[in-house]
């Protein structure tokens, strides 16, 4: 599975959009981009995933560049409950282990 | 909706003791994954099971063993506990048929070895 690079931390004001970048320059054509988050000491929580096209669900939007070497997770209206570590993971399919690397600690402030 | 259940939620053991962690996957999920998260670290994959057979193995010490039972629940057995085994242990489940792109994580078991 391809490796990913994320900034170690970022702050966001409550109510504003949070844009979380992820670089995955070695991604292969059949690997998906997944985003999970972990609120302090809780089990990781699935947010969204995508292959090529941009995706949106009730939690977030995922923007994948045309060359697929990077992506951005967008939390449209950050709330205090969005404070968490966000992990960008690249893997072949939903089945199989997830390899959690160093994610981004997002702190949403009032 | 039913979630992954882990028990116990907290466990305190002494060095060289044994511990058993249990995981009850979401109904009709046939795949179980175990992850270990040390203090200040990211979750690390230990082992997984599909249809009661081991499907993958990560950095799991030889002192640890696990299995999945006929009702799909799984147990992680840890022997000769060391201080370094103190961690959060997460179990996750997912269905193969139909294939899900999401793993559903439990609340974790916090193991403290003294």
How would you describe this protein?
The complex is a heterodimer of chains A (110) and B (114). Chain A is an all-beta fold and 110 residues long. Chain A has no helices and 9 strands. Chain A has strands at residues 9-13, 18-23, 32-38, 45-50, 55-56, 61-64, 70-75, 84-91, 104-109. A 5-stranded mixed sheet of chain A has the order 1-9-8-3-4, with no helix packed on it. In chain A, a hairpin with a 5-residue loop joins strand 6 and strand 7. The radius of gyration of chain A is 13 Å and the shape is globular. Chain A starts with 8 loop residues before the first strand and ends with a strand. With 114 residues, chain B is mainly β. Chain B contains no helices and 11 strands. Chain B has strands at 5-7, 10-13, 19-24, 31-37, 44-50, 53-57, 64-68, 74-78, 87-94, 104-105, 109-113. In chain B, the strands form 2 sheets. In chain B, strands 2, 4, 5, 6, 9, 10 and 11 form a 7-stranded mixed sheet that branches. A 4-stranded antiparallel sheet of chain B has the order 1-3-8-7, with no helix packed on it. In chain B, strand 4 and strand 5 (44-50) form a beta hairpin. The radius of gyration of chain B is 13 Å and the shape is globular. The model of chain B has no long low-confidence stretch (mean pLDDT 94). Chain A binds chain B through residues 32, 34, 38, 41-46, 49, 85, 87, 93-103, and chain B through 4, 31, 33, 35, 42-45, 48, 56, 58, 88, 90, 92, 94, 96, 99-108, 110.
Quick take:
The complex is a heterodimer of chains A (110) and B (114). Chain A is an all-beta fold and 110 residues long.
Describe how the helices and strands are arranged.
The complex is a heterodimer of chains A (110) and B (114).
Chain A: E1 9-13, E2 18-23, E3 32-38, E4 45-50, E5 55-56, E6 61-64, E7 70-75, E8 84-91, E9 104-109
Parallel strand pairs in A: 1-9
Antiparallel strand pairs in A: 2-7, 3-4, 3-8, 5-6, 6-7, 8-9
Chain B: E1 5-7, E2 10-13, E3 19-24, E4 31-37, E5 44-50, E6 53-57, E7 64-68, E8 74-78, E9 87-94, E10 104-105, E11 109-113
Parallel strand pairs in B: 2-11
Antiparallel strand pairs in B: 1-3, 3-8, 4-5, 4-9, 5-6, 7-8, 9-10, 9-11
């Amino acid at each position: 599975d391809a490796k990913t690079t994320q900034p170690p931390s970022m702050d966001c004001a409550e109510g504003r959009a949070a844009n979380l970048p992820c670089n995955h320059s070695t991604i292969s054509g059949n690997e998906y981009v997944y985003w999970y988050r972990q609120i302090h000491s809780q089990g990781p929580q699935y947010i969204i995933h995508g292959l090529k096209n941009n995706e949106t669900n009730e939690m977030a939007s995922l923007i994948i560049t045309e060359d697929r070497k990077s992506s951005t997770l967008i939390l449209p209206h950050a709330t205090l409950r969005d404070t968490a570590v966000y992990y960008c993971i690249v893997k072949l399919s939903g089945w199989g282990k997830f390899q959690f690397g160093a994610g981004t600690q997002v702190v949403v402030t009032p | 909706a039913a979630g992954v259940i882990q028990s116990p939620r907290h466990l305190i053991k002494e060095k060289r003791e044994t511990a058993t962690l249990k995981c009850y996957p979401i109904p009709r999920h046939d795949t179980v994954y175990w992850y270990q998260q040390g203090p200040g670290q990211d979750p690390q994959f230990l082992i997984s099971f599909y249809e009661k057979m081991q499907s993958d193995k990560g950095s799991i010490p030889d002192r640890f063993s696990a299995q999945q039972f006929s009702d799909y629940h799984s147990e992680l057995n840890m022997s000769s506990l060391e201080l370094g085994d103190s961690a959060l242990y997460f179990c996750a489940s997912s269905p193969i048929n139909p294939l899900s792109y999401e793993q559903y994580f439990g609340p974790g078991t916090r193991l403290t070895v003294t």
